[in-house]
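ARCHIVE ENTRY
Sequence with per-residue tokens
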Amino acid sequence: MKELILIRHGKAEKRGSVFPDRNRKLVIKGINQLNKDIPFLGHYLKNKQVVYLWSSGMIRTMETAGIIKKICKIDEIETCGFIETGDFDAFKQKADQIEDECTIIIVGHEPDISEWTYRLCKKNVRIKKGCALLIEISSDQRSGTMRWIAEPGEYQDIIV
């Protein structure tokens, strides 16, 4: 069974700031919340044999993925263009090519995370900044079951 953990980047600079959208960074409040929540994700991942960390190339997602990498002791972050563009079919193609017994963490954006969740689970969800959700992918790779969703500040109660 494959597990998919979708995480929306942490709280970032507002749109329309002096930077182009792709260069928006996490704000201190977002960094602090991730540093409080991600250790509980690390605890969940502790006994997982194979964990992939995929991220959009935008600054705020790479910063979020960097926090996850450090706290969860993951070897590398793979930047995937399909996360930035929201290309679900490209995601499915890549995910289908890797072994079944793994956990894939994707750090991305809205509305893509919600749309991918609906396509896999037929569940409408609202993904806040810093939110994480777990989907177990069926053996036929065509559907999934959402097991939990943890909003910022709730990781300890939901994931552990």
In short: The first helix runs from residue 28 to 45. The longest strand covers residues 2-8. The two ends are 20 Å apart (CA to CA).
